[in-house]
Amino acid sequence: MNEDELIEDVLNQLTLIHGPIVRQEYMKTYYAFNWNDNQLSMGAFALYGPGQFTTSVHHGWILGTLNSGYRAVMEILMKEGMTTKLTELKKEMGRS
Question: What sign does the CA torsion over 33, 38, 42, 45 have?
């Protein structure tokens, strides 16, 4: 796949998730990085440290980051007693 095809494929995939705003916001700049060719990562990592598997089965992936952010917002809302906002979060985003 050449660079133009790569950009078009990425834009198509992001548009499926986020809608037409992707193409409106695309600034014609990008940085493509092939993790499979990186000698230090060789694609990705999934090495779990002690106790990590029990906190997230998506360690090292974007979904793990999203889950961490969701959990942080949820904990703040709970600590501050913002039950209405907590209910809204769960309704809008589902459960982590």
Answer: negative
